[in-house]
Amino acid sequence: MGGGVQMSVLDRSPRFVDDGVGAGVARRRNWEHRCARVLVGYDGLVGVIAALAAYAVRFPGSFSWAYGYLAATLVAPLLWVGAIALSGGYESRILGLGSEEFQRIFRAFVGLTATVGFVSFALKADIARGYIVLALPLAMALSFSGHYALRKRLHRGRSRGRYTYRVIVVGGEESVADLTAQLRQERYAGMQVVGVCLSSGEGARLVGLGVPLLGGLDDVVEAVRASRADTVAVAAGASVGPARLRRLSWQLEGTDTDLVVAPGLMEVAGPRLHIRPMTGLPLLHVEEPEFAGRRRVIKAVVDRSLAVLAFLVFLPLLLGCWLAVRLTSPGPAIFKQVRTGQDGKEFTLLKFRSMYVDAEARKAELEGLNERAEGLLFKIRDDPRVTPVGRWLRKFSLDELPQLVNVIEGKMSLVGPRPPLPEEVALYEDDVRRRLLVKPGLTGLWQISGRSDLDWDESVRLDLRYVENWSFTLDLMILWKTMSTVARGRGAY
Residues 35-58: what's their mean pLDDT? Predict the structure, then answer.
């Protein structure tokens, strides 16, 4: 066995039929090409619909088509699909992942708008500005909707084991186990680990993960063939050196098997990472996270503006919740609690009261029922201290609505880490304290990733990921996903 690794008792998985290297790639390409064809066809239809709708709105009641607008309607599908293709919107590696797909559609919109404006100016073409202003934003909005719908279908399929990438993870035992666990948590990414090849260790940490050990570093190509994998993921660590990694890339040449390398920065991603070539050596440049400056000022302004708007929109609902709490159990409708905010400053958090007034006094007697004993949180799924109305408020996160006032006051943000209690902060380790570098949020990655079902370590990991990678795009994504998460009422108790 190559790489100094002996086969262990973990290698009990059934052997796959040897279809040759690339059999898994053909399977992957099949669903990728289907998705790309669906998107191209849909975006072409979007181009026609946007052109027709813009003409109908701009020239209402007119049935006489000018040749210019007829030509524009016929060319619109090609222009719109071509713009998205040039922006990389149909690349398989972004299907169903993150916000990059939607950013590329937006870049296609901006690029096509600029191109149409330049060409019309250069040729002195008499095109109604209202027609362009209506057609292109409508095309972008419809494409957003269609790509989002396909993404949700991919996610549903991946939850059932379809539309996945079959991955062989390579590296040292500890780094391989960490990367495998991470890929399993991010199931929507579709990275299905079908085996590992270790450069060191006997595989003891893999027992709980249930993945087969297929050999060492010299056995990667054979493992790809046997398991019909289409991706090789090299875990971070010094166990796979540059020479070995280069040799592995040569061995996979011509097979169309993807080779990806984990940089060892699990919670750093997005705009903070850049490749910086230096004397032929690609270096991964990691920018510092931005905790102050112009973008943070803009975020604060946007937070307060949206919070004021949301407060006015939800005012009838706020009044209804207030009355429901006051009329169904004794005590105030608003529950006030001291929490720790940005830079460790304490503030008074507002919530609708969802428990009986003696809840804190009864906490000690229920300590043995705490389902979050592994961390600092106190959570009981069927907490007897919660009122009937409070249980309903919690299910749909309506008890959190008064925190809009905290956002308006500037103590909280719409999106951020979970606001902790001072006694929790007192027990924080140094790395967990990084959660306090930004304002706590009314919602966040913890809200859309499981809410109360998350364990302590996972909630900390998600909060730190947000702190390290904050962006306006990420905030918009979290706010969008919060609506569907709250509507389903999952993970709240």
Answer: 91
Amino acid at 444: G
Lowest-pLDDT choice from 23-32, 60-69, 312-321: 60-69
Which pair of structure tokens corresponds to residue 453? 């079902």
pLDDT band at 238 (very low <50, low <70, confident <90, very high): low
Q: Please determine, for residue 44, whether its predicted confidence score (pLDDT) is greater than 50.
A: yes
Rounded CA gap, 77 and 41, in Å?
9
Among the residue ranges 188-197, 364-373, 444-453, the one predicted with the least confidence is: 364-373
Query: How much is the average pLDDT of 267-271?
Result: 58
Angle at 89 between CA 109 and CA 461, to 5 degrees: 110
Alpha carbons 217 and 240: distance in angstroms, whole number: 8
pLDDT digits (tens, 9 = 90+) for 291-327: 667 888 888 999 999 999 999 999 999 999 999 999 9
Give the chain as a 3 state SS string. Answer: CHHHCCCCCCCCCCCCCCCCCCHHHHHHHHHHHHHHHHHHHHHHHHHHHHHHHHHHHHCCCCCCCCHHHHHHHHHHHHHHHHHHHHCCCCCHHHCCCCCHHHHHHHHHHHHHHHHHHHHHHHCCCCCCHHHHHHHHHHHHHHHHHHHHHHHHHHHHHHCCCCCCEEEEEEEEHHHHHHHHHHHHHCHHHCEEEEEEEEEECCCHHHHHHCCCECCCHHHHHHHHHHHCCCEEEECCCCCCCHHHHHHHHHHCCCCCCEEEECCCCCCCCHHHEEEEEECCEEEEEECCCCCCCHHHHHHHHHHHHHHHHHHHHCHHHHHHHHHHHHHHCCCCCEEEEEEECHHHCEEEEEEECCECCCCCCCCHHHHHHCCCCCCCCCCCCCCCCECHHHHHHHHCCHHHCCHHHHHHCCCCEEECCCCCCHHHHHCCCCCHHHHHHCCCEEECHHHHCCHHHCCHHHHHHHHHHHHHHCCHHHHHHHHHHHHHHHHHCCCCC
Buried b (16+ CB within 10 A) or exposed e, 208-244: ebebbbbbbbbbbbebbbbbbbbbbbbbbbebbeeeb
pLDDT digits (tens, 9 = 90+) for 134-160: 999 999 999 999 999 999 899 888 888
328-350 mean pLDDT? 93
Measured distance CA(12)–CA(216) in Å, rounded? 16
Q: Who contacts 163 (Cβ-Cβ below 8 Å, separation ≥6)?
A: 31, 35, 96, 154, 157, 190
